[in-house]
């Protein structure tokens, strides 16, 4: 039973981190109509940058502030140099981001190296919870994710820029006609997407490994969250990420984790075919 | 010279080269290039299956590796677990892939656009993980090796087998050649035109009486068949099957080959696949991080030449032809 | 001649969520007359065409084409029964030549699931494509990609696509919308000529053209049929004048 609780809790923590990453994927899809195959690698770049900050400054906490800012910058640069030019070949956007994924992975392999590293969490120690000793860092990771997600929703709903983003998503042509700078919105959206994935990387780095292939496993999971939650339904994405990770965590305590993954993927296919707008579609519209 | 003639000459040159390769290639480069060339031919078929779907029907599949893997496992399981001979195993692999495509297609082609790409990835991932975890049957991570049964035995002494490298090369070249011939026949048929019609405008296509769903499903099954043949051949070539060939990165690579070679042209995938495999073989020794170049090429092609090298080639030939005799022929017969 | 109407629309409704786009529409289109549907924007004219041709499923009611129930049939099945249409936003197969466009429409009658036959050997479809090219004056452009055509020629080609399917009933959705005066005249003449051998229902905003060419006019407003009659009757109908003719593009 302890194992079930532990894995279930790990699942929820992991789900919150995934939610943070998947939200970026979801807004990029919703606003730019781009399937971003490189999104897992955005996360991976975040973990590597976190490692880099730790190496140079010796202070992991700095990474929580610096890495999202660097991520925002890289994101804006990528949007300007790769995403903007392919706006007219939307069908091929998947292919371009696949190329981007290759470049990001290879750049990291060339600089950081191919060997995975484990980082020591900045907070060590455990705390008694539900009859077991639970790692404090994981609770902290969950708190940071929740905070960042809340910040994102606040930005989306409480700022002028957020309102513009929602307007562009709803009707790009109308928004442009009303004088909303759609070009700039696309760039900022993509940059925010990168920044959120990178922050996810900082949060997750101490509980997984830093590895140039670290994004490969994350990507399908993020897609599952986005699809099951409903493409473009941001609240749905968060809920689906947490539910899926919890479900896989609990399943993994009974079966092979691969079986749990297959179960999630099957669920995702069914949702895609029966309710392409996600399982929460009815509740939000 | 008309564009059609130029393309015919190109095809003849390619056939001559392929037939002569086992003798010609070792004169100029190391003889392992014959092996690499047969590998290129096999992989080009996987790219051709992506091309059939994307270039001719307008569906971008990111999951063709699933059918490639089915072909591989069909052959490997057929030989190693069921004790099948060469031909039955080949047939089983191809059948398994085609049947898989039929089942997956019934669901997948209900979706279009990005949703289609996603569901094809999902389907391939489901079976990738299944293959990984079903160790007794598939060998999981380690893969499933087998020993090559003979193609023909004639009495005690006469034995034809792929263990002879020349036979293996010609067997692969011939099979791949047959697949392209079959593809060319289908693409020139009414069905081939229906493919392009659906790609151009699916709503209009249904309004003139085409069953768009059935046309797409047919294309999906054809593409699955081609990928299945490629997978079966690759199993024979490598004497084993492995789940890693079903991962979405393999599908992604096939998409890249097809796009760089030029979608919507019959032989574009061969060009794209060959080019990138040559790049890999030549560059990876001198520059460990040659993939940076591959990624950049992919992005540059998508931005500046979305119709790939094949598209550039057709543009060039047509421009030269129209300069010569002033006619512009954009009919499909010339698009090879 | 039978006295079954070529198209029979019975209590057809179409809802989009809470919005009622078609509200219990009843109409029978008789053979041998050019019928026109007019009405302000948002009256439900195009939605009616979409429901008839199977692009959208009807929420309620029944549709019969030549006495046969087509309510639940899909777009391609309806096309195969001999009901063709054009779209308001001109739509052809852009990446294919004019001839290939017409060829595939003609071939759809004989079936396209023939993977081992050469397309260029399809005698009937070849002949139909050439005939229609000539009929519409597109022969000189036969080997041009449709994307290179002028707007007027695309509109003609779209009518050609419909004709190549050998329809018994042709629905035209604003065929002259966006055309210059010369193109309009040419297209109207073509439609009148076609009306002699094919039943035509036309949605059109240009009232002059409608009154000029049609023998039967259906006026729609707010998803309902407001009035119906000959051009003369419609012109003098008070309700129609108030709802439509009076305050529209006068």
Structure, explained:
- The complex is a heterotrimer of chains A (285), B (336) and C (250).
- Chain A is an all-alpha fold and 285 residues long.
- Chain A is 75% helix and 3% strand.
- Chain A has one domain (2-214).
- Chain A has helices at residues 2-32, 39-57, 60-83, 93-111, 136-158, 160-170, 172-177, 182-204, 214-229, 234-254, 257-274, 281-284; strands at 126-129, 132-135.
- The mean pLDDT of chain A is 86.
- Residues 326-336 of chain B have low confidence and may be disordered.
- Chain B has one domain (3-334): ABC transporter involved in vitamin B12 uptake, BtuC.
- Chain B is 74% helix and 3% strand.
- Chain B is globular.
- Chain B has a two-stranded antiparallel sheet with strand order 1-4. In chain B, strands 2-3 form a two-stranded antiparallel sheet.
- Chain B has helices spanning 3-28, 32-57, 65-80, 86-108, 113-133, 135-138, 165-188, 190-200, 202-207, 212-238, 248-261, 268-286, 291-304, 308-325, and strands spanning 144-145, 152-154, 158-160, 240-241.
- Chain C has a domain at 1-82 and 170-181 and 201-250: Rossmann fold (3-Layer(aba) Sandwich), CATH 3.40.50.300.
- Chain C has 250 residues and is α/β, with parallel strands linked by helices.
- Classes of the chains: A mainly alpha (285), B mainly alpha (336), C alpha/beta (250).
Stretches of chain A where pLDDT is under 50 for at least 5 consecutive residues are: none
Q: How does CATH name the architecture of one domain in chain C?
A: 3-Layer(aba) Sandwich
Instruction: Report the end-to-end length of chain A measured between terminal Cα atoms.
Output: 39 Å
Number of domains of chain A: 1
Taking all residues together, what is the mean pLDDT of chain C?
87
Low-confidence stretches of chain C: none
Number of helical elements of chain A: 12
Q: What's the number of extended β-strand segments of chain C?
A: 10
Radius of gyration of chain A: 19 Å
